[in-house]
Design brief:
One of its GO terms (molecular function) is rRNA (pseudouridine-N3-)-methyltransferase activity. One of its GO terms (cellular component) is cytoplasm. Belongs to the RNA methyltransferase RlmH family. This protein is α/β, with parallel strands linked by helices. It has one domain (2-152): SPOUT methyltransferase, trefoil knot domain (Alpha/beta knot, 3-Layer(aba) Sandwich), CATH 3.40.1280. Helices cover 43% and strands 22% of the residues. The protein has helices at residues 14-27, 49-64, 85-97, 115-120, 134-152; strands at 2-8, 32-38, 72-82, 102-107, 123-126. It has a 5-stranded parallel β-sheet. The relative contact order is 0.24.
């Protein structure tokens, strides 16, 4: 399986980079994983609704430009469907069964994802009703993808 994680914003924190690198190394036995980091739009603290929309649209254009046409797109969104680790593993299993070997996860910037990106998504996934920094979501996502592959292979993993 080929997994692409398309994310807005630069990862600066060394501890997050180390965690992500560790899971990417572990994942290499199961899948090819690429992380595409796109620049975020600079924005002042206070924005009008129109400015928020414009920023999300600009970031959205960049995101859509990186999604391959035949990819199954999973957008990370607070209002998405929550799944257990086993359900995420089942999603991968079903995609593989039906010959969908390309999966693209999309993590938006601090303002979220544009309407166009959400429309392109095949599903919206929520890890929690809580809000997490998008940089931290990268680490959580790669850990859960790794866990899903372990589950599908019947290999032990911490609960």
């Amino acid at each position: 399986m080929n997994i692409t994680i398309i994310t807005v914003g630069k990862l600066k924190e060394k501890y997050l980079k180390q965690g992500i690198d560790e899971y990417l190394k572990r994942l290499s036995a199961y899948a090819k994983v690429d992380i595409i980091e796109l620049p975020d739009e600079k924005a002042p603290e206070t924005l009008s609704d129109i400015e928020v929309l414009q920023i999300k649209e600009k970031e959205g254009e960049r995101i859509l430009g990186k999604i391959s046409q035949d990819a199954h797109v999973i957008a990370l969104a607070i209002k998405g469907r929550m799944k257990s680790s086993e359900e995420l593993a089942d999603t991968f299993d079903k995609l593989a069964t039906y010959g969908r070997s390309k999966v693209a996860f999309v993590i938006g910037g601090s303002l979220g994802l544009s309407k166009e990106v959400m429309q392109r998504a095949d599903e919206a996934l929520s890890f929690s009703r809580m809000t997490f920094p998008h940089q931290l979501m990268r680490l959580i996502l790669v850990e859960q993808v790794y866990r899903a592959f372990r589950i599908n292979r019947g290999e032990p993993y911490h609960k």
